[in-house]
Design brief:
about 280 residues; mainly beta; 2 domains; nine-stranded antiparallel beta sheet; globular; signal; Antitoxin component YwqK of the YwqJK toxin-antitoxin module
Length: about 280
């Protein structure tokens, strides 16, 4: 009887090894096999309006009306806070948030939302129903001193943001419009129609945030990211398909973090107009 069980276990182990070898021999999915990308992963056309002054005029009108408790920009909100201790310092974040669902603007890099599971504020991977977008006033307090204050609009920095030192002395001030730093530069193909050619995000005098370049037919041509005035991460160029589909043309790899020494940008991959891979740098 024992010999039977030993033989059975041996056959079972042998079958598992054989199955594992088959699994390893299966070709893994190649993200570069096709240059065609899901258009939902990136904005396919330029924003119709950027830094729209009409919304600011509406906000001024709203100010004149009688203020309602926890209502900001016409939206009813709830109050929340986070608390943590780092090196003996008590850090609080006081904020308002909305339970209204809204898809984040794909042009904005940082969308702030409240993760109720671990009670923290995050800027990446927001999914409707997973958390709540910050909306309304925000304060960051360290040892009872306000070190940062500002306003959010559906998860994006909005209006005036101020930074203070530990003695509550103003150190810096910046202005935003729904996530876009007001210093950002916009170039147009046509000034009369406001047909956008290029959006360069600028904050504190340096390029900071998501960069976009467009074709004249309004399709996205180039996307990338700046940090502290330097290109970082993967920059992608797209073929002009007259907005029928998004097909990658070339990807250039830059340093992952600004001011990385001895890093040379290189072409990571290239595709033809049909999305067929024609070049890829070996790792």
């Amino acid at each position: 009887m024992s010999r039977f069980y030993i033989s059975f276990i041996f056959l079972l182990l042998l079958s598992k090894v054989s199955f594992a070898q088959k699994e390893e021999s299966k070709p893994k999915s190649d993200p570069d096999s096709s240059g065609v990308v899901n258009s939902r992963l990136l904005p396919t056309t330029m924003p119709l309006l950027l830094f729209d002054d009409s919304k600011e005029k509406e906000e001024k009108k709203e100010k004149k009306k009688k203020a309602r408790k926890n209502e900001w920009f016409g939206i009813k909100t709830k109050k929340g806070y986070t608390r943590k201790e780092i090196r003996g310092q008590q850090i609080f974040e006081h904020f308002n948030y909305t339970d209204l669902t809204r898809n984040p603007d794909p042009y904005i890099r940082d969308v702030y939302w409240f993760d109720t599971q671990d009670r923290s504020i995050k800027t990446k991977d927001y999914v409707a129903g997973k958390g709540y977008l910050l909306h309304g006033p925000y304060e960051r307090v360290i040892n009872e001193e306000v070190v940062e204050s500002g306003m959010f609009y559906y998860g994006t920095k909005h209006k005036t943001w101020m930074l203070f030192d530990s003695k509550n002395v103003l150190q810096d001030k910046n202005h935003f419009t729904e996530g876009w730093p007001r210093e950002s530069r916009t170039r147009y193909f046509d000034q009369t129609t406001k047909s956008i050619q290029e959006i360069i995000p600028v904050q504190y005098g340096l390029e900071e945030g998501n960069y976009f370049y467009f074709y004249e037919d309004k399709q996205v041509a180039v996307t990338g990211e700046y940090q502290f005035g330097e290109k970082v991460g993967l920059w992608t160029e797209y073929w002009d398909t007259n907005n029928t589909k998004a097909i990658r043309k070339r990807e250039v790899q830059y340093q992952e973090a600004a001011y990385t020494k001895n890093f040379r940008p290189y072409i990571r991959a290239e595709w033809d107009k049909d999305g067929n891979l024609v070049y890829r740098k070996d790792n």
